[in-house]
Every structure is written in structure tokens, then in C-alpha cells.
Amino acid sequence: TTPSTVEGYKLGKVIIEGKTKQVYNLPEHPGLCLLLSKDRITAGDGVKAHDLAGKAEISNTTNGQVFRLLNEAGVRTAYVKACGSNAFIARKCEMIPIEWVTRRLATGSFLKRNVGVPEGYRFSPPKQETFFKDDANHDPQWSDEQLISAKFELNGLVIGNYCAILKHSPQCMNPFSITGQDEVDIMRRTTLLVFEILERAWQTKNCALIDMKVEFGVDADGNIVLADIIDSDSWRLWPAGDKRLMVDKQVYRNLTSVTSTDLDKVKRNFIWVAEQLADIVPRKDHLVVVLMGSASDTSHSEKIATSCRSLGLNVELRVTSAHKGPEETLRIVREYESVMNNLIFVAVAGRSNGLGPVVSGNTTYPVINCPPVKSDNMQVDVWSSLNLPSGMGCATVLYPEGAALHAATILGLSNFMVWSKLRVKQLNNFVTLKKADKELRGVRNA
């Protein structure tokens, strides 16, 4: 029986119903919808299907944990929040009927389609494939050219179609037309980003993400966002990288006959995955300490702190001078060294920068110089940060955001969430350039 409300949300009409979920309109919340999972497991385009009590709740929990990580990293998604045990709220999207598959190791259908490739062949970078969602034809693999030529139009956005002349002439002349690949490129890069974030997250549990599929939608503003559900139906997971220990839906796919005992095993695997994801909590065991030589450097240091926080970095500001109070400076350094293992010092000192070199010469932690230089004295003041005595290993970065980014690249080596935020920043830069280029390009007739 379909409920009329879920956690206080009044359900409207069913927007779409799939094999394992229903999507409901929320009449009292324009722009949002509710995805309700079913206690159902299927394979082979629904040819194999069984009821599995509790699967809806497990799937909803798994999906929520995955999107929790992706949203924290800054990935653009449709996911808003969980709503009860077996549903969640999402922003309304028009779905792009394409499954994006990313593979780290060759296995499954890839081996059948690429005879001669040994199982376990490692793709670096990961292999990416697209499949058109069409159950009747078993989701055929598509090329970029097919995807672009389909000209999917969703919420006013045409996927992969652009005419260079169209903006500046009443007619688009074929010899000068350009088939745009902007949206395809954005989805491809986002797909890879999502895979690599989750791959690193699973590595913290000594579990290998072998491959996975995702889908995208176009929101009301015409933005491409990660949408649908990501759960144990969406990927292959091999604990310790051992295929024999697989804990994903492939266990169900491999069954020639299905008993209640088999279904119990599948369910236990799904529960294990959800429990492991719940335990993947990004660590906060790091600190960036901004040491400024004078309170007059506060504005510059606050810019560093703001950039650090945007990248998920804990940061603290201190005032100390290596020239006027070297003993106090080293005492402060020792104070942090005694309580932190993942520690970075950023030295902010103008004129003669003794702060960075002194700290660098007395600690084994990274030190980054970020002097508050001004255009009229840059060449003189920056020299003391660059021309270091022998044995000093501190870097010099001129801009506050650059100092924060440099600190994040160091801490990201051992913190997957910091690394993920850096990757998302790179993706956002790419998308911004793509959109700007699409807006401005076009032949302007003489």
C-alpha cells in the first residue's frame, strides 16, 4: 500500500516508477520530489527479480551515506536529505537517459565486449563508457557521437548540440556549424570525479571499488547534476581487492537458482556495505597554523584562513615574531607539535621574513611562506622568503588562496575529503570555463 505522506511530506502523483523505486511529486514543495525505494532486487533488465525484505531501507541508507560524502566534497547533486527509512528528498530534474560507467579493473560485460583483455586489467585513467537506457534493447553502448546526435532537450538544455553561427545569424550555415560536446565533457569529468572520490573513500576501509554507474539530470536552472540512486546495485566492491569476497549485486547476478538462503547472503552483504559507509567519516585530525609577525598582517592572514576553511581545513591564527620574540615563536611551534600529527605552518611576515626560515629550521612539519607583499615593495620584501639559508625547506606562495591550496595538497595526501574538495575545485574551474566559452563563441559575420 502506497502511503499518502512520508515524514510529513504529502505525496502527489507518481512521476515515474522503476523496477526498484518510485518517484513522487510533492505538491506542497515545488521543485522537490520524493524517491521511495522498494523491497525488490532485480538483474538482467528485470528478467530476474525477487522480493527482498529490508532492501529498501538498506538501499536508502547506502544512498544517503554516498551522497553525504559527495555533497560534503562539493559535488553538484540532486540529493537533499533522507526522509524516513526508505525514502529521500531530491531536487526535481529531467533525467538524461544515459548510464555513465567507470571501470578501474576489467571484469563483467567489458570482457565479453572486448575479447582478449584479461580479467583484472587495470585502467589508468579509469575506463569510461556510456549506455543508452533502453531495457527492450538491453541498454546498448553508445558513442559520444550517438549521444551528441540524440540532441536530448531537458529543462531547456540541449545536450551536445551547438551551432556557431546561430547566435549571430538568422540561419545556421552547415559548413560552419559546430557540434558541441560541452555537456558530454562536463558529465564525463564529473563521472570520473565521483568514481575517484568514492574509490578513495573505500580505500580507507581496505575495499576496492572496481566499477560503478551513475546518472545525471538537468535541474530547473539548466544545470547538470548528479542524480538518481547510488547503492549496492550501482557498483562492484571487492574487499581487500579480492573478487572472491565481492559484496555487491554481482553475487545475486551470479546465482543460477535463488533460494532464501542465497537472498539472506545478498542482504547481509548489502548491510555490511551500509555499515562500512556509515563508518567512513572524514578525519579532522589536522591543523593549519597561520603565524603572523604582526597584528597588522591580520587581514592577509584572514584571507588565508577563509580559503583554508573552504577546502575543509582547520585553521588557527597566531601572532608571533621570530625577530622580536624567537623563544616565544619556538614555544608556540612546540605547543602544536606536541598535540598534532598532521600539521602545517604558514608564515606571514613582511619586510625581512625571518619567521618562515626560523620555523622551518626548527620543525620537521611543512612550512609555507606567504608574505603580505605590496606591489611597491614586492621585489625587495619577497627576497627574504625566497633566498633561504641552506637546510631550509619552506615554500613561498604570494597569494593567500595559493597558500591554502598548497596546504590542502599536502594534507590531501592522507585525507580523501581534502583531496576530493581539491578535485571538485578543479572540476568547477573547468565547468566555468566551458560555460563562458559556450556563451561567447560563435562566428560574427563581417
Show the helix and strand layout.
Layout: E1 5-6, E2 9-10, E3 14-17, E4 21-25, E5 32-37, E6 40-43, E7 48-51, H1 55-73, E8 79-82, E9 87-91, E10 94-95, E11 98-105, H2 109-113, E12 122-132, E13 141-142, H3 144-150, E14 153-154, E15 157-158, H4 182-203, E16 207-218, E17 224-227, E18 235-239, H5 250-253, H6 260-278, E19 286-292, H7 298-310, E20 315-319, H8 326-337, E21 342-348, H9 355-360, E22 367-369, H10 378-381, H11 383-386, E23 395-396, H12 400-411, H13 416-440
Parallel strand pairs: 19-20, 19-21, 21-22, 22-23
Antiparallel strand pairs: 1-2, 3-4, 4-5, 5-9, 6-7, 8-9, 10-16, 11-12, 11-16, 12-13, 14-15, 16-17, 16-18
Helix pairs in contact: 1-6, 4-13, 7-12
Explain briefly what this protein structure is.
With 446 residues, this protein is of the alpha+beta class. Helices cover 34% and strands 24% of the residues.
Describe what this molecule looks like in 3D.
The protein has about 450 residues and is of the alpha+beta class. The chain has 13 helices and 23 strands. It has helices at about 55-75, 110-115, 145-150, 180-205, 250-255, 260-280, 300-310, 325-335, 355-360, 380, 385, 400-410, 415-440; strands at about 5, 10, 15, 20-25, 30-35, 40-45, 50, 80, 85-90, 95, 100-105, 120-130, 140, 155, 155-160, 205-220, 225, 235-240, 285-290, 315-320, 340-350, 365-370, 395. Strand 6 (about 40-45) and strand 7 (about 50) form a beta hairpin. Helix 7 (about 300-310) packs across helix 12 (about 400-410). The protein starts with a strand and ends in a 6-residue tail after the last helix.
